[in-house]
Design a protein that fits this description.
single chain, mainly alpha
Length: 197
């Protein structure tokens, strides 16, 4: 489907159609007008569409986009969408860093956060900016959480950071966990992560 048709699909009443259009458009995010059209869906009434819109900018090294995303955190009511939003912010900060002003905006939003999955993403952001290893230790402590979704999120978040300290922690921790992990989903992620350590 061409970009013009995908722009039309963005106006569908069906949220899944809008998600599909955003996902396809994200492959051409640098094309004229694409980023602006996707950003309009930061205010979509469906949290899945907003999540997809945030995901579209994963790793997108652009300061203005990072700023828009950081100011979105306080407005975002869905904890699922906030998790996607913070994960995307983390991926951008890894590439281009973060100003003190934006970092303060992120920290202000963090104070009120209750969702474990979102907190994990915040700690990744804080680690990338401050290089405080205690944030990685906090994240690793959730590998024993009873919810396997949280354990999966921990593995995915750490895999995205990919620095020497995190790789060392992964190597030491993941191989020990592999023997006692019950969830096949978590075991698969652990095995994949260990290949890159």
């Amino acid at each position: 489907m061409n970009i013009v048709d995908l722009f039309k699909k963005l106006n569908s009443v069906d949220a899944l159609d809008r998600c599909d259009a955003i996902e396809e458009l994200s492959e051409n995010i640098s094309a004229a007008g694409v980023a602006d059209e996707i950003q309009k869906h930061f205010d979509d009434n469906d949290f899945l569409v907003r999540s997809e819109a945030y995901d579209a900018f994963y790793g997108y090294a652009d300061t203005k986009t990072l700023e828009k995303l950081c100011y979105r955190i306080k407005k975002e009511k869905s904890k699922c969408a906030r998790m996607h939003l913070c994960s995307t912010i983390c991926s951008i900060i890894k590439k281009i860093g973060c100003s003190k002003q934006l970092y303060n905006v992120i920290k202000q939003s963090y104070i009120k956060e209750k969702s474990t999955n979102v907190l994990l993403s915040y700690w990744c952001i804080f680690y990338l900016v401050d290089q405080d290893k205690s944030y990685i230790q906090k994240i690793l402590s959730y590998l024993s959480d009873e919810d396997y979704h949280i354990r999966c999120n921990v593995i995915n978040l750490l895999a995205d950071i990919e620095d020497n300290y995190v790789k060392q922690c992964e190597g030491e921790t993941f191989s020990l966990l592999l023997d006692r992990e019950d969830s096949e989903a978590v075991r698969t992620l652990l095995k994949d992560a260990l290949k890159n350590v």
